[in-house]
Amino acid sequence: MRVAIAGAGLGGLCLAQGLRRAGIEADVYERDPAITARFQGYRLVLSPTGSAALRGCLPQRWHPLLDAITGDAYGERLVLDPWLNKIGELGPGRTGTVIDRHVLRHLLLTGLAVHTGATLTGYDVLDDGRVEARFAHGDPVVADLLVGADGVGSAVRAVLSPQTTPTDTGVRFVIGRTPLTEHFAGLERAFGSKIAGDGVSLLLGAMRFRTPPKEAAEELAPEVVLPDVRDYVRWAMILPPDGSRGDVTPQETVLSRIEGWHPDLRALIEQSDPDNSTLLSIRVVEPREHWAPGPVTLLGDAIHATSPTGGNGANTALRDADLLRHCLTEGRRDLLGAIGDYERQMFEYGAEAVRQSLDALTAFVPQSESA
Ligand SMILES: Cc1cc2nc3c(=O)[nH]c(=O)nc-3n(C[C@H](O)[C@H](O)[C@H](O)COP(=O)(O)OP(=O)(O)OC[C@H]3O[C@@H](n4cnc5c(N)ncnc54)[C@H](O)[C@@H]3O)c2cc1C
What we know:
alpha/beta, FAD/NAD(P)-binding domain, 12 helices, 18 strands, 33% helix, binds flavin-adenine dinucleotide, monooxygenase, FAD/NAD-bd_sf, FAD-bd, oxidoreductase
């Protein structure tokens, strides 16, 4: 069986690893001109489900490396004022481990055939039941199965389910990171908490690697080359609807909104890495329309994009990858039976993940300034 995967994000790469482990050929086609072409280095919280799915797809010999490059998710989950005084509690939160997305992506890329600069533009199902994928440049590719793991704006979804389209929540947020120095370790109480004031929320999270990823790979799995990333603080500011401006940098956006806040919070933003901060919009995709199983399917954000406040987008994409791997490789079903099994389960938990993330969004979004 030949599988073509559109999108070298977490879900697509995880599936490719899982299929490779089972001896199935899978080629990945990625739109970006290079793997490091844009900011992708934020911190993710892996839930027990997401971790188990990831392990299910990765070769067992990399599991110790995975343990070494994750950290514990912890935090008091408080609500703090701009001077870091406690004013409330966020309530029980997610448990699991934290991992850097850029590092995880490098681990997932190891040993895979990834074609970069390959923008999928459409596909046709052929008379023999296979599928031909077309790209903006280069020759088409014929495969037994095409998996659209091409994110929230999925080109595969646009053909398979044109009625399923992303909804813009209107919420924007700025995200960045700053090296975790001894000085910023003093902000411990704010890690995992929400700092609220002046109509905005600032969220901090520490990424502490048990072992620096590059060194861990050299020691535990020399065939894996991981980036040299050190501990950092991830910060994110959720803006009120219409609260973003296009003519200032992400740091300036945040600094202009935290005047008079605790000096360590301002210093944290001032000392952030300008290449690793960006303004993002929150769009969701709700899986509603079911289609008859065929040689084309979707996974991850392409079919159930969540708000990052739910902390479940990557976990659900990894779960899809492991489930699809399982359906394709275990049991004795034909291809369409396997895809049908996968889609039935994925639709159910995918829709639930989107619902949960939208519920969580309301706790973090400040009121519109024009309201
Ligand atoms: C700031 C932030 C924090 C987050 N924190 C968490 C968290 O703590 N926990 C969690 O579970 N989730 C989190 N998420 C969500 C998570 O990152 C995503 O849900 C996850 O990356 C989805 O994986 P994916 O493989 O479906 O899509 P993506 O990772 O978006 O990958 C899609 C890939 O497809 C490529 N592509 C797009 N179009 C085409 C095309 N036409 N042809 C070829 N390639 C194409 C893209 O370039 C991209 O590489 C967070 C997201 C953000 C933005």
